[in-house]
Design goal:
- By secondary structure, the protein is of the alpha+beta class.
- The protein is about 35% helix and about 20% strand.
- It is built from six helices and eight strands; from the N terminus they run E-E-E-H-E-E-H-E-H-H-H-E-E-H.
- It has a six-stranded mixed sheet with strand order 3-8-7-5-6-4, with helices on both faces.
- Helix 2 packs across helix 6 (about 190-195).
- About 40% of the residues are buried.
Length: about 200
């Protein structure tokens, strides 16, 4: 049975009801101070620092830590929809899982071509996560010394994730066609994303 079984409205906020015991329900985002819910999506888009893949279809924000194996799995699940023009994903790096998370995220955000850097990173990550992981994360992933603006950007990304009351990564932030905003914590499959698409703005 598909994990996303229905969409329902609660107090004007979209909440995804997920099946199976392992899945977690989507959580509604709290409104920002003195800001209408309709302005929330625009505001977070201006605050977040991300790497965008795709230019067609609904936009979602995918929060990830470079040392999260489930985040790399999520990347693979999203790629077919991006490549067929059905989805645009804005990958939002955060850095908290391991000491190497910050320099790895910095290598992505400070690269001359962020999209190419992310794609190369994912190829290396697939190999790295196939091997035993050390205490400092998977070996062989690109790293860079984080510039002050990069450190600030990662902190803002993390603050937005925490404002959504997410328990970790991956986490998907989305906007419903009616303008409400919601979050799905945990990994979502290609099939589940496909089920969501008609309801996304």
């Amino acid at each position: 049975m598909n994990r996303i079984t229905k969409l329902t409205m609660v107090s004007g906020i979209l909440v995804g009801i997920l099946g199976t015991g392992a899945a977690m329900a989507a959580t509604a985002l709290p409104p920002l101070p003195k800001m209408a819910q309709s302005s929330y999506w625009k505001d977070i888009g201006q605050r977040l620092t991300y790497i965008q893949e795709g230019h067609k279809g609904p936009i979602i924000y995918d929060f990830f830590d470079p040392n999260c194996p489930y985040c790399h799995g999520m990347y693979d699940e999203e790629q077919p929809l991006i490549q067929t023009g059905k989805l645009t994903v804005r990958y939002v790096p955060v850095a908290y899982l391991m000491p190497s998370s910050t320099p790895e995220a910095a290598a992505l955000l400070q690269a001359p071509h962020r999209v190419f850097a992310l794609q190369h990173f994912e190829v290396l990550a697939a190999k790295s996560f196939a091997a035993p992981m050390g205490t400092h994360g998977p070996a062989g992933l690109p790293q860079a010394k984080a510039l002050p603006q990069t450190t600030h950007a990662l902190k803002v990304n993390m603050a937005v994730l925490q404002s959504a009351h997410s328990m970790g990564v991956p986490a998907i932030l989305y906007e419903h066609k009616n303008g409400s905003t919601g979050l799905i914590p945990g990994m979502v499959s290609h099939g589940e994303l496909l089920t969501m698409l008609p309801n996304l703005k």
